[in-house]
Amino acid sequence: MRTPFAPGGRHRRQEQLLVECSRQLSAVAEELRRANLIQHHRLLVEQLDRAIDDPTLAAAMSTLRGLTEVKRRQMLFANREYGVLLLTYRVDGCTWDELLSRLRIMCHNDLFAEYWSATLEHRKTLPEESLEAKVGQAVDAILEDLRDDRDEWWVVGLESPPPPPQP
């Protein structure tokens, strides 16, 4: 009686194992993607740190024109801090709402607002559907809100754009 049913049970078990193996492989691939993002960002931050410390490297790394040595370093640092926030979101270190909250705080800094304005042309080259373009639109909205009422920058629950789909 058991013999006719055994092969079907074995086949089902093999399918279950294959599905579980596929799920685990996908998880490993996602973890590798995150590790690669972190490694890439670490290399970029090391370059930015060197450029911030050395004016000759800062001039080679910056695409902004007409800046004093001090201002160029400040802009590179603002870029570095923005990149850290973006990476934190990309590797699921914060939610979309937490990212916007941290960006809202950062946007209150006049130097960051200056950096954001100076790099407008850079953001125009981003693909519209990219995460950076979506974050850029959110920062633009935050800065616009700040221009309207600087005393309410900290208000939680301001209408924010929905999160972009994760890659």
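the 2nd protein, sequnce then structure:
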Amino acid sequence: MRTMQQSVGFGSMELIEVAAHRAAPREIDKILELVLSAANAAAVAFYPVVPGAGLGTVIAAAGRADRSGIYTPEALAGLLRHSLLEQIECSSHALVIGFEPTPAAHFALCLLRDPGQSRFTRTEARALNRLYPWLAGWIDLWCRNQRQSSQAHALRSAMSASPFGIMLVGADCHLFEANRSAHALLADGDGLLQADRRVRAVLRADQLRLADTVGSVAEDGRPSGMMPPVLQIRRQGRHPLAVAAMPVERAGNDDDPSVILYIVDPELDVQPLLAGACQLYGFRPTETRLVHHLVAGRSLGEAATRMRVQHETARVYLKQVFSKTGVHRQANLVRLMLLSMMPVPGDVDRMATAPPNRVADFSERGASKN
């Protein structure tokens, strides 16, 4: 792979460099258009390079149509890739610039002139070297931006998996980010709502307390060891929401989120969240149904009635559950199940009737030894 490393003069490169410096790290198409113009090429494409496997799938491409007008940037990118793979070392119609922003990240900026154009000359190749230092710095920024975007996407996915509402707000309750559960609570409009990109309580008294709490936490934070302030946000005909406010550790930029709001709906249907916990402990279908009834607040007798079994049969199921979980009281069982809840995608009914998984074997053996 040919790599440009030195800098020499080149006609209108100064104007290109000025325009390039104004491009944000994510504006890769703009960068490719600038390189295309500087090289007087038919196509330019940006590829990852897989060690031992060559060029990967094109990340972005730009190109100019030839006289027939049949070449789109996508078609030229395909032509470019084919030309490079076929004659990357011997064809002077192709020029490859290699970059390695990190030891694990390899990229190639590939330029192609079609057969109707003159071939790249050594003078032109050397002239393009003037862009190399800036391109290398820009690609480094692009990689960092991609990693940050990927990490942010992963964090949003993790937040959205939570059954509880999570919001990132500013000192004035400006909403920066919210997970799926929080958006559902805001859309419901009972207790909390969103207005002008701000989180507000429906009732005036609750709104005053919410605004005061968020402002105080944003300004003072929370002393170590102290419980975060928790508010009750009242709703019509339903239990109030519980809202806890936690400070965000940040560099001090006032435009950044400063407070995390954790919102718990006491009327949340926890049954779907129990499927993963029941599989974790290897409950059989009858044991799973019993646990669902107990977590819902029903007594053992009420659970037996709903399951249409004798009270003594339900007691046998309960003993089996105790053996698998290592607890000996119904209250402790409910607490353990609530602490073991996890969001598990899929058909909850099917999972509830599925056979126990391998974890059950270890749980049973461990319980039997005790």
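The chain is about 45% helix and 20% strand. The CA atoms of residues 93 and 118 lie 8 Å apart.
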